Amino acid sequence: MRAIQRGARGAAVAEIRSILVVLELLVEDTSPSSDPVFDEATERAVRAFQQSRGLTVDGEVADETWRALDAARWRLGQRALFHTVADPYIGDDVRQLQERLLEMGYNPGRADGIYGSRTAHAVAQFQREVGLRPDGECGPATVGALRRLGRKVIGGRPQLLREAEAFRESGPTLLGKRIVIDPGHGGPDTGHVVPDGPLRWTEADLVYDLAARLEGRLAAAGMRVNLTRGPVPTNALSDRDRIQLANELGADLLISIHLDGHRNPEASGVATYHYGTVSGPTSIVGERLAGLVQREIVMRTGLRDCHTHPKTWELLRLSRMPAVRVDVGYLTSPSDRQQLVDPAFRDRVVEAMMAAVQRMYLPVEADVPTGSIDVSLLRALTAAPTS
Ligand SMILES: [Zn+2]
After folding, report:
1. Which of 358, 322, 168 shows the shortest CA–CA distance to 243?
2. From ligand 1's centre to the CA of 298, what distance in Å?
3. Separation of CA 90 and ligand 1 centre (Å)
4. Of the residues 65, 209, 281, 290, which has the maximum number of CB atoms within 10 A of its CB?
5. Whole-angstrom Cα distance, residue 150 to residue 143?
6. Using CA atoms, how far apart are residues 103 and 154, in angstroms rounded to an integer?
7. 325 C-alpha vs ligand 1 centroid, how far in Å?
8. 258 C-alpha vs ligand 1 centroid, how far in Å?
9. For residue 270, how far is its CA from the centre of ligand 1 (angstroms)?
10. Phi/psi of residue 314, each to 5°?
11. Where is each MurNAc-LAA domain found (predicted)?
12. Distance between Cα 360 and ligand 1 center (Å)
């Protein structure tokens, strides 16, 4: 979908405005002319919506913002929900349902707003326990029972605690764990591109090189490693395709690698992102991985520290495993670029990521100071006793 932005007109703009009105971010247009325009007020409302959802705030409506807007119009109880494989129900009503089920101790998976088989299963379990027909469909009777019982249960962040517990239970060794490494962009989608004298650097190529180096190192340490794409894919891959692959593989961790870019060549540094919102729920394990990746890279490379940030990007939100995205420096910064094009520097970045992954699996009491793991010793450190 082309981004709909300031100045646009037409049916899509009318639709966007009507959703923003329902969300009380925009005052209804009562003028008799029925050709609503994407005006300044609409853009402000879109920005407020994006901010509240942890989306990139650009005031435009492209795919991800559109899907979030489309989902936001539904409130629990406004429509009957059930599991369909071909065209699943998506919306804030589904997310409310999932959050309520989680608060009550059922396990519909992460509250991703998609009515999948796990959600239907959790609904059926709830129905059985309250004496309703366990058909996995969320109609008026089920919503009523959820409303009556839901209030008695103390809220919390059980799904994220469950994720943390599952991670802890998986044990302290890297051996046999599955990690998916996602080099951003690829093929027709080059990401940031910078001409540099006769040379031309692309984000897609450099992050693929980083991913391939990391793949080799982690595989040598006994992990099962998959990349989401090859060096020169024919088609561009969406974040949804990437996350679907990681989910299908049943990965234990996901690291997505990008480079940043900005008009201003002064912008520089490394930043890492995990699932979460500023005041709401956060993936505890994802936040920890992001912190380790960020600190190890800063310590081992000297890149400027642009810190870690919670985001609800689809890549992070729809993953069933702890997932982070790291933007390893600005391709548009002459100083970052000079380092990034040096293979020895990229090796240091990869060592930092390795050390972070290793520390994820060390018990808290055995954790070590940032920058102190010698990753060349990792195999000895992580090898499980064979006798
Ligand atoms: Zn990128």
Report:
1. 322
2. 19
3. 27
4. 290
5. 10
6. 7
7. 10
8. 4
9. 13
10. -55, -40
11. 243-358
12. 25
Dihedral of alpha carbons 26, 29, 35, 40, sign: negative
Ligand 1: distance of its center to the CA of 255 in Å?
Answer: 13
Q: What is the pLDDT of residue 155?
A: 36
CA–CA separation, 259 and 382 (whole Å): 30
Q: How far is CA 77 from the centre of its chain?
A: 28
Look-up of token digits 């996602």: 182
| Better-predicted residue by pLDDT, 361 or 307 | 307
Average pLDDT over residues 48-53: 89
CB 65 within 8 A of CB 15: no
Residues paired with residue 272 on neighbouring β-strands, in sequence order: 308, 326
Residue 372, pLDDT > 90, answer no
Helix, strand, coil shares, percent, the chain, to 5: 45, 15, 40
Residue 361 makes CB contacts below 8 A (sequence gap 6+) with: 170, 171, 172, 173, 174, 177, 382
Helix, strand or coil, per DSSP, at residue 194: strand
pLDDT score for 379: 54
Compare 299 and 165 and report the one with higher pLDDT.
299
Sequence-ordered list of residues with C-beta below 8 angstroms from that of 154, at least 6 positions apart, any chain? 103
CA of 127 from ligand 1 middle (Å) equals 44
Ligand 1: centre distance to CA 328 (Å): 10
pLDDT of residue 285: 81
Residue 260's contacts (CB-CB under 8 Å, 6 or more residues apart) are 192, 267, 271, 327, 329, 330, 331, 332
Higher per-residue pLDDT: 2 or 135: 135
Task: Determine the distance separating the centroid of ligand 1 and the alpha carbon of 191, expressed in angstroms.
Answer: 5
Could you give the CA distance from residue 257 to residue 181 in angstroms, rounded to a whole number?
8
Q: Look at the chain and count its residues.
A: 387
Rounded to 10°, the helix 203-220/343-361 angle is 50
Q: How far is the CA of 182 from the centre of ligand 1 (A)?
A: 11
How high is the mean pLDDT of the chain? 86
Q: How far is the CA of 260 from the centre of ligand 1 (A)?
A: 6
CA of 89 to the centre of ligand 1 (A): 30
The pLDDT tens digits for 277-311 are: 765 566 778 888 999 999 999 999 999 999 999 88
CA–CA distance, 34 with 204 (Å, rounded to integer): 45
d(CA 7, CA 36): 10
